[in-house]
Amino acid sequence: MNLNDIYIGSHVSLKSPDYFLGSVEEAFSYGANTFMFYTGAPQNALRLPLEKLKIEEGKALLKEKGINLSKLVVHAPYIINLANAKSPDLYEFSKRTLQNEMKRTAAFGASILVLHPGSHVGQGLECALSNLVRALNDIINNDHSNVRIALETMAGKGTEIGKQLEELKYVIDRIERKERIGVCLDTCHLFDAGYDIANIDEFLSLFDRIIGLNKILVLHINDSKNPAGLKKDRHQNIGEGFIGLDVLRSYVWHPLLKDIPKILETPYIGSNPPYKKEIAMLLNKHI
Ligand code: FE
Ligand code: FE
Ligand code: ZN
Fold first, then answer.
1. Separation between Cα atoms, residue 109 and residue 258, nearest integer Å
2. Which burial class, exposed, middle or buried, applies to 124 when counting CB atoms under 10 A from its CB (0-12, 13-18, 19+)?
3. Of 4, 32, 217, 256, which has the fewest Cβ atoms less than 10 A away?
4. Dihedral-angle region of residue 31 (phi above 0 means left; psi in -120 to 50 means alpha; beta otherwise)
5. Cα–Cα distance between 55 and 18 in angstroms, integer?
6. What whole-number distance in Å separates Cα of residue 287 and Cα of residue 277?
7. How far is the CA of 281 from the centre of ligand 3 (A)?
8. Is the CA virtual torsion 274, 275, 277, 283 positive or negative?
9. Surrounding residues of ion ligand 2, Cβ less than 5 A
10. Ligand number with the minimum distance to the CA of 264
């Protein structure tokens, strides 16, 4: 595979004063050719109006640099939990928030929205999965954008659902508009959930048997602070954790994952983002 076939970047911020234009500039400063952002704070649903976010300026810069908007990724806020319908208010709030995020994602010209499947908070897995299916169908069937939701594979912390590929398959199988749903593979989460990801060909063939490779919309490339299977969800810098550089690099370079955006969500080192160095490490086959 050729370097030009690799779309790689990191999570970047969207903040005052330059908002989306600033996000694009931040991504370029890391040598990235794509990126992921939240359309507001990750942990809440408060959102500035789109007119304030310098979207056209950001798009113009992307165009000038020849960057393909179809590779940009938005992450929905963590506060959304469509798996828990115990509190009808919270469930409806989550639905409204996701509905709004889909519109916002489309306004940036992006078409991939990463969503955490949610937590069952004591209701049990089956109930949680059917709550999620019901909400997603309702939202997708009433949405007129072409935004695709990428359900993220989760570590299984607390009562998180989405730690087993079969759970995601269960949801995808029941979504009416299949072209609007897919998966975000997070290497740290998969490892933490107990998947053996070291042999990429074996892992991809397992994924293909259960869900289908054509459903992979995004990859989150993170190392893990903990050994496999501990379900702690602690991201580590590339090459500094228990997954290791070689394995992470194999996900960046695999021909079957060509064209799929790869996004780093590794921790800052002190107050410095590690992304420029880590992207270079992943792109260099030989260091
Ligand atoms: Fe996530
Ligand atoms: Fe992730
Ligand atoms: Zn995580």
1. 21
2. exposed
3. 4
4. left
5. 9
6. 12
7. 21
8. positive
9. 186, 220
10. 2
Distances 285 to 3, 236, 282 between C-alpha atoms, Å: 10, 20, 7
The Cα–Cα gap between 107 and 14 comes to: 15
From the CA of 233, how far away is ligand 3's center (Å)?
5
In this structure, which amino acid lies at residue 207?
F
Token pair for 112:
């991939």
Which H or E element spans position 152? strand 148-152
* Ion ligand 3 — residues with CB < 5 Å: 233
Give the distance (Å) from ligand 1 centre to CA of residue 109: 20
Non-local (6+) Cβ contacts of 139 within 8 A are 95, 98, 99, 102
- Model confidence over 203-261: pLDDT tens digits? 999 999 999 999 999 999 999 999 999 999 999 999 999 999 999 999 999 999 999 99
The per-residue pLDDT string of the chain (287 residues; one tens digit each, 9 = 90 and over) reads: 788 889 999 999 999 999 999 999 999 999 999 999 999 999 999 999 999 999 999 999 999 999 989 999 999 999 999 999 999 999 999 999 999 999 999 999 999 999 999 999 999 999 999 999 999 999 999 999 999 999 999 999 999 999 999 999 999 999 999 999 999 999 999 999 999 999 999 999 999 999 999 999 999 999 999 999 999 999 999 999 999 999 999 999 999 999 999 999 999 999 999 999 999 999 997 54
d(CA 53, CA 39): 9
